[in-house]
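Notebook, bench 3.
Goal today: get a predicted structure for Cytochrome P450 from Trebonia kvetii so we can plan the truncation constructs. The sequence was checked against the plasmid map this morning, with no discrepancies at the termini. Length recorded as 379 residues. Pasting the sequence as submitted so the record is complete.
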Amino acid sequence: MREEGPVTSVVLPHGDRVWLVTRYADVRAALADPRLYKDWAGKLTSPDWVPDAVTGYLSVHLLNADPPDHTRLRKLVAKAFTARRVAGLRPRVEAITAELLDAMEARFAAGEDAVDLIEAFAFPLPVTVICELLGVPVGDRDKFREWSHAIVASDGDPGSFRAAGTAMFYYFNELVAAKRAHPADDMISALVEARDAGDSLNERELIAMLFLLLVAGHETTTNLIASGVLALLTHPDQLERLRADQSLLPGAVEELLRFVNPLNHATDRFTLEPVEIGGVLIPAREWVLCVTSSANLDPGRFPDAERLEVEREAGGHLAFGHGIHYCLGAPLARLEGEVAFGALLSRFPSLSLAASASTLRWRPSSLIHGLETLPVRLA
């Protein structure tokens, strides 16, 4: 498609038409194009449309907002994800990582031949970090995993999506009430305070913000860690290069982000007027998917793009998006990836796959590019 039809309309399995943008230059430009909108609830619905509680709260987070609402909402949480603030989280990320690796080592010592790296490490690391940052009980993390999977799945029953959304809605309502009664030093308490001080944040936006931060705060990083380990184990020359020189880790994380693409595409955008992208005129009121995974493998931008090279200069990849919706959590994801890969490779020098790579299953999601399981042997 990059070569023959870089901007092409397709019909998705559920019958809706979207336009796929697949070439790097076009994807990058489209992600920053103000004529591609996000606020479907405010711009595509009829004046008499009344959202129900669940749809209403799901529809007002950052990824479904346009300026000026997007600008206002992003400003409220941006300070929690600055490079300086995230750097201060490194000791805690390292401690959580060490605890998880200790538990894996204990399971191996007790006679377990293989472990699922996602269950044991790639999921609990980022979800524990985001739970602690937000002020969400870490003990509830398995609930979030179940809810999150239902929300991003493409093949699920619509009822499952709704049930998961409803459960999260009521969960966060109760949590916000608890934080109002007993504030703590966490982001939820800070957002509740901003809401109650009249700082341009209504109750629906508060709930939606928590939903987005929790889901986005662990889904993609889980996939970066798991898919990144799979990529390294199936490219042993690159794995050995990284083992031999861990100063390559920061750059290797960028290359792994480019290569494994934790998201298949950016979140949905739509036109309100005809918009030309890559020489193709997309009509008004059409949905557009910017296929970042394709852009990151575009040989016109990254020579020999389908090859993993941990020493590649991978800057400019679009794994975190581009433009005003560039991922707020990018500094945290980078930190978690760097710590996770470094510690895992150091602790388990004989790490290997416990199943053929060809038998591994990918989650049934248009948006999420992630494995269902990753069985590995530690020695």
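The longest helix spans residues 158-181. The beta strands are 7-11, 17-21, 36-37, 115-116, 269-271, 275-277, 280-282, 287-290, 352-353, 375-377.
Flagging this for group meeting.
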